[in-house]
Structure of Protein GrpE:
Amino acid sequence: MNENKSEQELHTENLANQETAAGEGGELNLSIEEQLAQATQKLTEMQDSFLRAKAEGENIRRRAMEDIAKAHKFAIEGFAEHLIPVSDSLYAALATEAGDAKAFKEGLEITLKQLISAFEKGRLIEINPAPGSKFDPHQHQAISMVPSEQDANTVVSVLQRGFLIADRVLRPALVTVSQAK
């Protein structure tokens, strides 16, 4: 469409566009010094905004680093709160003078229940495979292989229980495993 217009028509359109722009912003009527002053003021405002945004970003980063450090420092706090009653029960058991083995055993069983409850609250899951269950090298550590009537590579006995935290093995269960016949 512009190809069909004459140079005079294009020049007239440009002048009209410039007058419209001048009427809207008034920048064409300003002197170069005034335009420079406006641009300098705008630059100063933008620099100030940039510096404020940069400082805010640094403050957010610093606060996040402090929060992470506190989380690492006090991560065990909740779990420790669950273990304190177990400690209290053990001290109470040691302080008693009762010579009754049955009462002492009952006290130990109650303390063990408290400990298991504390483990559950702390998301510490016990690995205690049943005899005859399939050996899992990700959760079990074979101490020895023994001849057995069970299928090969199954747990014969548990020597020490293992533990998981959030599906991550903290300590594998120590087991004996059946040999192939």
